[in-house]
């Protein structure tokens, strides 16, 4: 049976979700990985496909082409800024975000950023748009700072999202992760989303947790995967059980199938 | 209610007020308010799920059936969106050189398409010049009143909130133009700041209360103050958030839902 916890996003409730985890440490073996790879290979695709929790929640619907905007940059810049604030608490969030944006601009002007990257886009933006980028990232970093401010356990900002390339299936899986809290028993992974959770938020969390587990070198699942929706003031969580991992893997494969059918309707 | 007819030297200073007299954080009221809202919604809508949820926004409470709302005109909406961009830039200390051009650039950086963008593109030179003059006047008034927003006061702009009630039958949606302070700590410190390009009126007061209510429901913590500022007149209304204010807002929201239900 799969799990799904629903709580208000307040420090007490979040601390309970982080500390009161139970159960053994589920893990994905090489056999599991091979089995998953076989299932993905069975869904033929002409192009490289990228799947994540969002595509699971949207039932494989192909979304519009990616385009940089202040909203699209806020998470990367906001998380990086909060990392700065953590290492030097005297820095204000606004200053930290401004420093991050300056670093990105420096990368672009010194030629270290490839075309299509955020740094290149920022370098071409007029000053007011850069100002809006800063405002969005400040919002993100401040709300994350308020969340971690109430945590009673050690935490760190995730250095990157989790990625897993499925062998021979031209498929890359991605899991969003913003905060990680680790202890001797294992790790708790948290990710922040805007808006409010929809009916498929649970499957989305399970998909993220499965990819997070696959991306772990030892295949060990997090004790719990928590989704935070600060705009709605709620959080949902799934436990790192084998049943949840299986459900996550199943949803990812189903999403690949549905997406393929959408792209090639005549083959259905 | 504190009414300041002419803006104080710095709006932000007025919002933060005296640090020594702030009330302790109130975590207890949110659940009671939520329960009252749920009861009120049940009285109006019953237990039957609606095909489409009733969405209540601050704008729903600003309107009254027998008054004309000039800020709801296309020109007014366009001006409101642009002033909001200016506030966002000011909140993080970005210098605005040419008010109209800068805020239009910022706006287009975020939204490439949309009804209002189309309206903007269709403006002829005269209309565009009139809008530019209008927006510049509002931005100058706002900049003079707002002053510098210190980074240590945790400013964030266009803060969104959504609350689903009545089993999904009602959605409260809100965007606070500027929020300062934090929900952490031992005393209330969050101040909500709403900018309108119309003169302040009863509707603005209801919107102030709505912001405080939704923020309380979202964070389960009562904010310190809520304020409405008119960039047309430079007036600001600041109100301390307390049980009575939130209670009034609950009643107003339920009345609004009843009105919207009757219209359906």
Detailed description of the structure:
The complex is a heterodimer of chains A (268) and B (264). By secondary structure, chain A is an alpha+beta fold. In chain A, 48% of the residues lie in helices and 16% in strands. Chain A contains nine helices and nine strands. In chain A, the strands form two sheets. Chain A has a six-stranded mixed β-sheet with strand order 1-9-8-7-6-3. In chain A, strand 7 (186-192), helix 8 (201-215) and strand 8 form a beta-alpha-beta unit. In chain A, helix 4 crosses helix 7, helix 5 (93-109) crosses helix 7 (127-149) and helix 8 crosses helix 9. In chain A, 46% of the residues are buried. The mean pLDDT of chain A is 93. Chain B is 48% helix and 17% strand. In chain B, strand 6 (225-230) and strand 7 form a beta hairpin. In chain B, helix 4 (74-91) packs across helix 5 (99-110) and helix 8 (202-219) crosses helix 9. Classes of the chains: A alpha+beta (268), B alpha/beta (264). Chains A and B meet through helix 5 and helix 7 of A and helix 4, helix 5, strand 3 and helix 8 of B.
